[in-house]
From TrEMBL:
<dbReference type="InterPro" id="IPR020930">
    <property type="entry name" value="Ribosomal_uL5_bac-type"/>
</dbReference>
<dbReference type="GO" id="GO:0022625">
    <property type="term" value="C:cytosolic large ribosomal subunit"/>
</dbReference>
<protein>
    <recommendedName>
        <fullName>Ribosomal protein L25 beta domain-containing protein</fullName>
    </recommendedName>
</protein>
<dbReference type="InterPro" id="IPR011035">
    <property type="entry name" value="Ribosomal_bL25/Gln-tRNA_synth"/>
</dbReference>
<dbReference type="GO" id="GO:0008097">
    <property type="term" value="F:5S rRNA binding"/>
</dbReference>
<dbReference type="GO" id="GO:0003735">
    <property type="term" value="F:structural constituent of ribosome"/>
</dbReference>
<dbReference type="GO" id="GO:0006412">
    <property type="term" value="P:translation"/>
</dbReference>
Length: 317
């Protein structure tokens, strides 16, 4: 912290630097004898405003070193980013149906993998705070991309959300499935991406569109902790027609240095794009290939979903 002596010395330097108000205005007898201010000096009210503005600017100039040191100290002492969440649950009672659990304003769930299955119930308000972390948002990507420590009685389970049955529009959870995460075993976790430095991006200053190419990136975690969302810094992203990209290799420095986290092997770090800078009017549209199948119209088994019950009413895919 800044000592009192340093602050007092700075204020003393300020008073020596500024002129005296009485030296310019004069004594009271001089002001009463002459209706106008002395030659070369301003009026009393004008001089006071000038003096206040001068003192304010000098104080700002002298306060910057102290403010800078306090900012450095504040950000140095801040704890490291951690996305781990803690939630309390209770055992799923025997012979109790899912409908009965939902009627009691609880959300049923199962903890599986690396051990016996454990049936649990979460309070609706507790699990909703993790699943829908934005007032007007849908199901959060961070819900399945963070470590969740579940306290069931005296037992603590370190888990990752592997499946969610929910209505993202009405914000209603029906069922949650969690997989245990243990150190030494590989767990594939979709880590969310967050864009920072947009206002300083040369591409953004040129008026082009800058966005993330993917909301999450799959990572293989073998350590005890799961990293927080990756901050994609686009402050150096420039634009050149038709578009400019940032690749996954630019995020390698964000991985933990202990080597317990790496990107999924399905990615090519040199060709996988994570951020784009492009202009809508200069991108040419390309027709999809003839064998393209829209994944939104596929069932769980891989078969195509019928659009309409009456054949021929809608065009077939």
């Amino acid at each position: 912290m800044i000592s009192f002596e340093l602050r007092h010395a700075s204020v003393g330097r300020l008073h020596r630097r500024l002129p005296s108000l009485g030296a310019c205005v004069g004594s009271a007898s001089d002001r009463s004898s002459s209706p106008l201010p002395a030659r070369g000096c301003l009026g009393l009210s004008v001089q006071r405003r000038f003096y206040k503005r001068k003192m304010k600017s000098e104080l700002k100039h002298l306060a910057w070193p102290f403010l800078h040191s306090e900012m450095v100290e504040f950000f140095t002492e801040r704890p490291s980013r951690d996305s781990t969440a803690v939630i309390t649950a209770r055992e799923w009672p025997r012979f109790v149906s899912v409908e009965q659990i939902r009627a009691e304003r609880y959300v049923p769930g199962i903890i599986w993998k690396h051990g016996p299955e454990r049936r649990v119930c979460f309070k609706e308000e507790d699990i909703h705070a993790l699943a829908f972390d934005e007032p007007e948002g849908h199901l959060s990507h961070l819900f399945s991309g963070r470590l969740v420590k579940v306290h069931v009685g005296s037992v603590e389970e370190s888990c990752v959300v592997s499946h969610v049955s929910a209505d993202p529009v009405d914000k209603h959870l029906y069922f949650v499935r969690l997989a245990r995460h243990t150190a030494g075993n590989v767990t594939v976790v979709p880590i969310p991406l967050t864009m920072i430095g947009l206002l300083n991006s040369p591409a953004y200053r040129k008026g082009v569109h800058v966005e993330l190419a993917m909301p999450t990136v799959k990572c293989e975690v073998v350590g005890e902790c799961i990293p927080p969302p990756f901050q994609v810094d686009v402050s150096q992203l420039d634009y050149s027609p038709p578009f400019t990209s940032m690749y996954l290799r630019d995020l390698v420095g964000l991985l933990p240095e202990d080597g317990t986290v790496r990107f999924a092997r399905e990615y090519d770090v040199n060709s996988q794009e994570v951020a784009w800078a492009y202009e809508h009017s200069k991108l040419e549209e390309e027709a999809p290939p003839p064998d393209f199948i829209d994944p939104n119209w596929l069932k769980k088994g891989g078969r195509r979903m019928p659009i309409a019950a009456r054949r021929g009413f809608y065009p077939q895919q």
